[in-house]
Backbone:
């Protein structure tokens, strides 16, 4: 049985994406799953209308690759079910992919063979999808699976309320930084010294100083090194 009291304590201590990933994976395992994927979209955070939708994703399947398979969004029955106007929580497995066995085989190759998915519509165009998966067909009767889906739905509703402010803050801070500022902070986070950056990027010393000062101000901290740590912590770089 999932421990919702423990979940409340875990969520109370969330400060960054690593914490989000840890808390969600812990609950997934309490329900008997191996993995989880969280996808969040806030249209208000889009900074480039021509760049398409930008999703924030936390997953322990970053290596999954569908290669040259075309039209996945149109063919994948799970994606289609998530994207309907009013999606509801659902269970999926091999039978779900009877008309797209090649897509199912890709997931199987990476140890993803069935799961539960809870799509959430959060208002103002925001949406979050939480997926728990396992490397085999789900055990249990339909009633037992439905009970696990109910527990997961309860988790998703509590979880979303706790983590959305963190995601949105990250979007706001990240979108405030320009490309050069992000690159400079990335190098600082990788332990480059500030005096090494001008030659590394072939930029003027005064420009580098100005960009780092600007980045620190935008992130509300007092120095570039702290800005680099914060930017990495919130996933801006």
Residues:
């Amino acid at each position: 049985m999932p421990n919702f009291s423990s979940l409340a304590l875990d969520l109370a201590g969330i400060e960054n994406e690593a914490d989000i990933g840890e808390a969600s994976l812990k609950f997934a395992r309490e329900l008997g799953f191996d993995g989880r994927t969280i996808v969040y979209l806030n249209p208000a955070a889009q900074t480039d209308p021509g760049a398409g939708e930008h999703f924030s994703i936390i997953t322990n399947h970053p290596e999954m690759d569908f290669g040259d398979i075309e039209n996945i969004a149109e063919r994948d029955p799970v994606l289609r079910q998530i994207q309907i106007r009013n999606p509801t929580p659902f269970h999926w497995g091999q039978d779900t992919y009877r008309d797209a066995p090649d897509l199912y085989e890709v997931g199987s190759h990476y140890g993803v063979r069935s799961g539960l998915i809870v799509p959430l519509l959060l208002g103002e165009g925001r949406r979050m999808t939480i997926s728990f998966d396992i490397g085999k067909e789900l055990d249990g009767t339909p009633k037992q699976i439905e009970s696990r889906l109910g527990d997961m739905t309860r988790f998703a509703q509590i979880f979303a309320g706790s983590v959305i402010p963190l995601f949105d803050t990250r979007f706001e801070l990240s979108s405030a930084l320009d490309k050069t500022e992000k690159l400079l902070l990335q190098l600082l986070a990788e332990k480059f010294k500030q005096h090494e950056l001008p030659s590394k990027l072939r930029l003027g010393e005064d420009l580098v100083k100005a960009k780092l000062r600007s980045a620190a101000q935008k992130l509300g901290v007092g120095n570039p090194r702290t800005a680099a740590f914060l930017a990495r912590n919130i996933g801006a770089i």
Q: What stands out?
A: The first strand starts at residue 35 and ends at 41. The radius of gyration is 21 Å. The longest helix spans residues 142-176.
